[in-house]
């Protein structure tokens, strides 16, 4: 087994949170929540993973964050984005229906 999450060495153990010249940061007001691990960076697009702490907690959820991109040391103006807690519906069973039938 290797030291990677998949055990086969196909994926890195941790994704980089910066490229050589690009950083994506999430803020709650003026408080830095974290830098996003970057999956892909080009001139037209950045694919990033939102850090887990961005949603807050069940007691103190965060409903909006500010996002900035720093490229070659120049930080963009902050963009406001709404936040929703993770809801992985594809892994949840469907709700029961009133017409549920037993198999014959």
Task: Spell out the blueprint of helices and strands.
Blueprint lengths: L21 E7 L2 E5 L2 E4 L4 E3 L15 E8 L2 E2 L3 E4 L22
Structure explained in plain terms:
This protein is mainly beta and 104 residues long. The chain has a domain at 22-84. The chain is built from no helices and 7 strands. The chain has strands at residues 22-28, 31-35, 38-41, 46-48, 64-71, 74-75, 79-82. Strands 1, 2, 5, 6 and 7 form a 5-stranded antiparallel β-sheet that branches. The protein has a two-stranded antiparallel ribbon with strand order 3-4. Strand 3 (38-41) and strand 4 form a beta hairpin. The chain is elongated, with a radius of gyration of 19 Å.
Brief description of this entry?
It is built from no helices and seven strands. The protein has 104 residues and is mainly beta. 7% of the residues are buried.
Keywords summarizing the entry:
disordered N terminus; five-stranded antiparallel sheet; 104 residues; 7 strands
């Amino acid at each position: 087994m290797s030291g990677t999450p998949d055990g086969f060495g196909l994926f890195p153990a941790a994704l980089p949170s910066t490229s050589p010249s690009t950083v994506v940061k999430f803020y709650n007001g003026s408080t830095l929540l974290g830098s996003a691990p970057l999956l892909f960076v080009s001139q037209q697009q950045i694919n990033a993973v939102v850090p887990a702490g961005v949603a807050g907690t069940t007691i103190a959820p965060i409903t909006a964050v500010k996002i900035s991109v720093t490229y070659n040391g120049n930080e963009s103006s902050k963009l406001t984005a709404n936040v929703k807690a993770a809801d992985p519906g594809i892994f949840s069973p469907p709700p029961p229906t009133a017409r549920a039938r037993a198999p014959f």
